[in-house]
Write a sequence for this structure.
């Protein structure tokens, strides 16, 4: 008798967690999410799903909580999306970043090994692992050269996932995802910082947008497309790691130009460069080659760069308008 599909998602309250939970519900999964206990509960992204998912308290820093959670839920799949995932914060909090992002993945893998080694495991790896890239585009064979404590922590989590796969025959995969954005992206990240500012400027609530390196190049895709790749990786006969990317790169300046243009504004009237937003060690360019995923998983992105920018600006314009009208806090 086959086991019913039951997924546990760490980081379910984040952008990817929300999109993945929605996708798995559509696929007929029983969806569980792990959340950290905090003084203020922030479930805005998954609010439409709350009556269809089950949330449980747990923490990647607390090994025993993970063991108990696996014993209680008995998932068939675990998607480890939780991390200290903001690159600038990783420079100011490098130890916390290592504890959560690197060792947190190890704790979950060890919990799986102890409780039920048949549980399939997905690790959210990152293009930030490539860092100072020697070649372009980057694929599964490109060497890692991380340029932030976040990137370093992700490299550790990536290789410990490989190690548990090879050492204990666990179905464990890593998705090396390049930048993926959406209206659910946190406003600390540059793309959403831009679209949120555009909406506030358009509605007269903000005068200027301050940014760092406008020449940084990234391969930006839509988060809703990328979580489909996560799901597909977990359905294969044998576990393999995949780069997930659009294969096209754009500068921060191009993102800014399109975002302001969508709102009928000239970006040069509002954007100021601020050295405070420059990283101690910059990653200047990232562009992924997802040929392996396209060939083996049948995956390809559906939303292009222009559509992504338009989607995010439109959502923020609508949100800020409602906020201005007193319909949102």
């Amino acid at each position: 008798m086959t086991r019913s599909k039951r997924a546990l998602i760490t980081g379910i309250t984040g952008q990817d967690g929300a999109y993945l939970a929605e996708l798995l519900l559509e696929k007929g999964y029983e969806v569980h999410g792990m959340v950290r206990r905090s003084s203020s509960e922030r479930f805005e992204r998954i609010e439409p799903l709350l009556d269809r998912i089950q949330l449980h308290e747990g923490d990647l820093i607390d090994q025993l909580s993970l063991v108990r959670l696996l014993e209680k839920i008995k998932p068939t799949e675990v998607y480890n999306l939780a991390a200290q995932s903001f690159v600038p914060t990783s420079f100011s909090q490098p130890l916390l970043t290592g504890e959560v992002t690197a060792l947190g993945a190890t704790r979950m893998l060890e919990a799986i090994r102890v409780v039920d080694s048949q549980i399939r495991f997905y690790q959210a790896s990152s293009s930030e692992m490539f860092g100072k890239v020697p070649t372009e585009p980057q694929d599964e064979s490109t060497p890692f050269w991380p340029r932030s404590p976040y990137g370093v922590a992700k490299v550790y989590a990536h290789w410990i996932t490989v190690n548990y796969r090879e050492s204990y025959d666990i179905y464990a995969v890593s998705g090396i995802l390049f930048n993926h954005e959406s209206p659910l992206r946190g406003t600390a990240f540059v793309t959403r910082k831009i679209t949120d500012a555009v909406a506030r400027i358009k509605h007269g609530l903000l005068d200027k947008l301050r940014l760092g390196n406008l020449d940084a190049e990234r391969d930006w895709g839509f988060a809703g497309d990328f979580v489909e790749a996560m799901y597909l990786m977990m359905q294969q006969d044998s576990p393999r790691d995949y780069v997930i990317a659009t294969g096209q790169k754009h500068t921060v300046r191009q993102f800014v130009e399109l975002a302001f243009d969508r709102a009928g504004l000239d970006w040069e009237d509002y954007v100021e460069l601020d050295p405070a937003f420059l990283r101690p060690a910059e990653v200047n360019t990232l562009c992924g080659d997802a040929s392996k995923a396209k060939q083996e998983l049948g995956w390809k992105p559906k939303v292009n760069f222009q559509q992504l920018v338009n989607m995010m600006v439109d959502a923020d314009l609508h949100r800020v308008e409602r906020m201005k009208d007193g319909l949102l806090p």
